Amino acid sequence: FHDRDGFIWFNGELINWRDAKLHVLTHALHYGSAVFEGIRAYGGEIFELTQHSERLVEGARIIDFEIPYSVAEIDEACRQVMKANNLVEAYLRPIAWRGSEQMGVSAQHNSINLAVAAWDWGSYFPMEQRLKGLRLTLAKYRRPDPATAPCKAKAAGLYMICTIEKHRAERAGYADALMFDYRGYVAECTGANVFFIKDGVIHTPTPDCFLDGITRRTVIGLAKKRGYEVIERHIQPEELGSFSECFITGTAAEVTPVSEIGEYKYTPGTISETLLKDYMELVQPSKQLAAE
Ligand code: PMP
């Protein structure tokens, strides 16, 4: 992905995409000392930009460093990248990391760096195709105990097991894997939160050891606005067979129905469809979904 035209915001400057390089002794590469964001822009508008910038700054603090830019400056960097690359429908990837000045677990005096890349990313799967749903398998690795890992940070190191599980799922012909937590409760997918529906009520895992996604919170708001009951609670794996609908949420996934988890089957129904449409209308109010 490094060999292409465009501009990347790198420590305060817009530089050529191909020149946005790091040294091999970068602390973040060896010890996982990086936090990042995934943000989307629709019709030139960056969705919930400030919430993402705040999560980045907060995540860095959680993993013990202070990004040398304010939330407002990070917002502005994102806007500059959009403009420099003439983007309208886009995915933005801010990342903050410890640099390469000192080598070892301790990196008290290493530089703290920030870069923002952005690229063209239209989302529009036809509604019909989305409603067919994704097939998920069950992950083996579990989301760690908050006493074991800084699970509220969108930290690079926490994605190690996500990549392993995503690859395992893809090799077996699935779109993604459902991950459980350290207690065995249903947690999330490798890059998205999960929701279930039973008897007209929405159930979603309590985000006490994984990311409380910005899309997740948005969708809960949309559901409540529709008058749907949303219950956040611990969900046992044995319950997976008792739900009628399932969908995942995330900046990249938006709202995407699930048709299968292991041996269990789901059929996207009114609630999934309504929330998918409500979400797309919220993020891209100008688009006519009916025209898809
Ligand atoms: N969980 C994980 C592991 C993720 O990577 C993401 C995507 N950032 C989410 C949940 C959903 O978060 P958001 O809705 O803020 O994108």
From TrEMBL:
The name this protein goes by in its record: Branched-chain-amino-acid aminotransferase
InterPro entries (alphabetical): Aminotrans_IV, Aminotrans_IV_CS, Aminotransferase-like, B_amino_transI, BCAT-like_C, BCAT-like_N, Class-IV_PLP-Dep_Aminotrnsfr
Annotated EC: 2.6.1.42
Needed co-factor(s): pyridoxal 5'-phosphate
Function: Acts on leucine, isoleucine and valine.
One Pfam family matching this protein: Aminotran_4
Top-level taxon in the UniProt lineage: Bacteria
GO MF terms, alphabetically ordered: transaminase activity
Record organism: Filomicrobium insigne
EC class: transferase
Pathway terms, separated by semicolons: Amino-acid biosynthesis; L-valine biosynthesis; L-valine from pyruvate: step 4/4; Amino-acid biosynthesis; L-isoleucine biosynthesis; L-isoleucine from 2-oxobutanoate: step 4/4; Amino-acid biosynthesis; L-leucine biosynthesis; L-leucine from 3-methyl-2-oxobutanoate: step 4/4
Family: Belongs to the class-IV pyridoxal-phosphate-dependent aminotransferase family.
Keywords of this entry: Amino-acid biosynthesis, Aminotransferase, Branched-chain amino acid biosynthesis, Pyridoxal phosphate, Transferase
Catalysis performed (reactions): L-leucine + 2-oxoglutarate = 4-methyl-2-oxopentanoate + L-glutamate; L-valine + 2-oxoglutarate = 3-methyl-2-oxobutanoate + L-glutamate; L-isoleucine + 2-oxoglutarate = (S)-3-methyl-2-oxopentanoate + L-glutamate
Listed Gene3D superfamilies: 3.30.470.10, D-amino Acid Aminotransferase, subunit A, domain 2 (3.20.10.10)
